Amino acid sequence: MNQFSPFDGALLVDKPVGPTSHDVVDAIRRRFGIKKVGHCGTLDPNATGLLVLVLGKGTKLAEKLLAEDKVYQGAIKFGETTNTHDADGEVIATAPVPPLDVDKLNAAAAGFVGDIMQTPPMVSAIKKGGVPLYKLARKGIEVERKPRLVHVYRFRFTDYCEPYGYFEIACTKGTYVRTLAHDLGQKLGCGAHLASLKRLASGRFRVEDAVPLDDLLKLSPEELQRRIIPFAELVRQYQV
Predict the structure, then answer these.
(1) Bridge partners for 48 per DSSP
(2) What is the C-alpha to C-alpha distance for residues 143 and 140, in angstroms, rounded to an integer?
(3) Are 125 and 177 part of one and the same domain?
């Protein structure tokens, strides 16, 4: 007798702008009546692209899948610094943008490739004393955050149309791309924030294989089952 149900496994979602990662989890849980649903790597509300969900017994593999490296593409707006390091925040400083092009941006970005210590932004899901930092930030409270070691494999700009630079980045889990955007702006002396971000890959999973959230929510339970990567297949892929 098969000990796994058709709803035990992983589901690849193409997240739109707007909902939080938790909103996506909640929508799938409610629509299909699945008790256990989790995600493997938070995407901010304005970020889009691949969100890996784990369902049922698949949640046992969440830590393994969460540890996977990530690939993103996005845009950075130079000349404006925000308090959240992205377009969701309040602009707290502006400065003239120096003459930039792809070569100059890549020369500056090269300084962020490799092992780097990164201080998480206050507006993040990291918890301090059991309370997410973003909840403290909403109250105007700022606390000390310990820098964390992350690794950036690749950080390259592909186009520049003032004041926006378009880039691709490959990095380890836990890397805050919006903080990289902020730090790059500080390095260039004009400030910057992350204008848009799309996750292209998480480990071996690709956004091309994901289904838009709205389309998933229109499926019948039987149709959803065909989109789920079975638990046994995940175990084989990850040799756990």
Answers:
(1) 198
(2) 10
(3) yes
With beta carbons less than 8 A apart as the criterion, state whether 44 and 193 touch: no
CATH code (residue 48): 3.30.2350.10
Residues 6+ apart with CB under 8 A from 203: 65, 68, 69
In a domain, 91, yes or no: yes
Measuring CA to CA, which residue among 61, 183, 169 is closest to residue 117?
183
Nearest in space to 110 (alpha carbons), one of 152, 75, 164: 152
For residues 78 and 181, membership in a common domain is answered with: yes
Task: Name, in order, each residue with C-beta under 8 angstroms of 202's C-beta and a sequence gap of 6 or more.
Answer: 40, 41, 50, 52, 65, 68, 69, 70, 71
pLDDT by residue for the chain (240 residues), tens digit each?
Answer: 358 788 999 999 999 999 999 999 999 999 999 999 999 988 988 999 999 999 999 999 999 998 999 999 999 999 999 988 999 889 999 999 999 999 999 999 999 999 999 987 766 666 666 666 666 556 666 767 788 999 999 999 999 999 999 999 999 998 999 999 999 999 999 999 999 999 999 999 999 999 999 999 999 999 999 999 999 999 888 765
The answer to whether residue 82 sits within a structural domain is: yes
Give the C-alpha separation, 27 to 31, whole Å.
6
Note the pTM of the prediction, 2 decimals.
0.91
User: Looking at the annotation, which residues are catalytic?
Assistant: 44
Pair 134, 226 in one domain:
no
Q: Which phi and psi angles does 80 have, rounded to 5°? A: -135, 130
